[in-house]
């Protein structure tokens, strides 16, 4: 049987299993996928990162039309960057253009224009859509945003990579902490406190310390791929798990065939933490763009997030579509050797049975 903490968590969110499908921005998760997770008893998560407010609203509407079950939406805490380049960009622009030319893209002379939705306007829309569960990445929402969310009884989950971040999120009013270990694929969801910006702590070490540090539920994330990982983190005191890479190879996944095959075929050592794609630390597969950029450029040559993200976005997207792994940004956690190609329904059923079998063995 699952522990009391996980049962209480599931009851609070009206789900059967303490399994959350991670929000993975970049067209990796569809409303249909979230529906299948919900049907199987888990909590699906809809990523709103990089979407305009009208696009985000449409995605929420489509997801709500697919399922009557609760689902979460994910937002990025506001990023802080100066208008215009903060430093000379000659080196990084030349590097990006070198790889753009290799796949037939025209060179860039400057950073593409982009707009970010104002977080308060995004919260307005989320409240209007009556979203019941919100997860937050990259920081802490303002006191005003948290007050408005609490007033409408929205369950808020913050992402932390250190106990200091976890305590700060709890103090801000979050109802649960996603404790993201170093093994996790994609962006580091924390790192927003300057005192420990590079605290790369593994899931096994982070989860019990987070459980001791806060008085709200802790959700374990990072490298969890099967029921053994779920059982282990529940034994450490977690109330639930959040899994991303495990879902990317499901038959309903909208990740590209190249991306899925690399996860299925690659050992854990094929991934690395790098900032060359977006300006923030992200775990992705190692490729030529990563290795040459890190060899030729220093950290000071990279642009801050999200400027670097927008500089490389078209390159990464086109490379993915053209099945050019040498410059595609293919996010993945370290648990690739445990990946499997199954339907969401079959994966969730196996995760449940594996967890119960592992817990029963003790």
How is the main sheet built?
8 strands, parallel
Kindly name the structural category: alpha/beta
- Which oligomeric form is depicted? single chain
Low-pLDDT segments, ≥5 res:
none
Give the SSE string.
HEHEHEHHEHEHEEHEHEHHEEHHH
Question: What's the number of helices?
Answer: 14
Number of strands: 11
N- to C-terminal distance:
11 Å
Query: β content, as a range?
Result: 5-15%
Q: Kindly report the spatial arrangement of strands forming the biggest sheet.
A: 1-9-8-6-5-4-3-2
Write down the Rg.
20 Å
Helix content: 40-55%
* Large-scale geometry: globular
Structure write-up:
Strand 2 (45-47), helix 3 and strand 3 form a beta-alpha-beta unit. The chain has 14 helices and 11 strands. An 8-stranded parallel β-sheet has the order 1-9-8-6-5-4-3-2. It has a 3-stranded antiparallel β-sheet with strand order 7-11-10, with no helix packed on it. The longest helix has 17 residues, at 344-360. By secondary structure, the protein is an alpha/beta fold. The protein is globular, with a radius of gyration of 20 Å.
């Amino acid at each position: 049987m699952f522990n009391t903490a996980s049962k209480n968590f599931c009851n609070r969110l009206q789900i059967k299993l303490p399994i959350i499908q991670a929000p993975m921005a970049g067209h990796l998760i569809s409303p249909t996928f979230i529906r299948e997770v919900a049907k199987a008893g888990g909590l699906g998560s809809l990523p709103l990162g990089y979407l305009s407010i009208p696009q985000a609203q449409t995605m929420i509407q489509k997801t709500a039309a697919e399922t009557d079950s609760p689902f979460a939406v994910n937002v990025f805490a506001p990023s802080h960057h100066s208008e215009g380049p903060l430093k000379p960009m000659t080196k990084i622009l030349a590097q990006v253009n070198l790889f753009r030319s290799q796949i037939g893209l025209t060179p860039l002379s400057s950073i593409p224009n982009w707009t970010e939705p104002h977080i308060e306007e995004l919260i307005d829309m989320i409240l209007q859509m009556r979203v019941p569960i919100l997860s937050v990445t990259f920081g802490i929402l303002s006191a005003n945003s948290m007050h408005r969310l609490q007033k409408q009884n929205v369950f808020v989950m913050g992402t932390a990579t250190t106990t200091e971040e976890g305590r700060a999120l709890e103090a801000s009013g979050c109802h649960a902490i996603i404790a993201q270990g170093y093994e996790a694929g994609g962006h580091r969801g924390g790192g927003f406190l300057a005192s420990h910006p590079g605290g790369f702590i593994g899931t096994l070490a982070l989860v019990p310390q987070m459980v001791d540090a806060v008085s709200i539920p802790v959700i374990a994330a990072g490298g969890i791929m099967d029921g053994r990982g779920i059982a282990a983190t529940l034994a450490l005191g977690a109330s639930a798990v959040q899994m991303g890479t495990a879902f990317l190879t499901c038959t309903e996944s909208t990740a590209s065939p190249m991306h899925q095959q690399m996860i299925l075929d690659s050992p854990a050592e094929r991934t690395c933490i790098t900032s060359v794609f977006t300006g923030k630390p992200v775990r992705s597969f190692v490729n030529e763009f990563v290795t040459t950029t890190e060899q030729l450029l220093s950290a000071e040559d990279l642009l801050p997030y999200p400027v670097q993200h927008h500089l490389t976005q078209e390159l990464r997207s086109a490379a993915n579509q053209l099945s050019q792994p040498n410059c595609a940004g293919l996010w993945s956690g370290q648990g690739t050797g445990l990946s499997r190609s199954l339907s969401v329904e079959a994966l969730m059923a196996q995760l449940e049975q594996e967890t119960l079998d592992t817990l029963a063995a003790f």
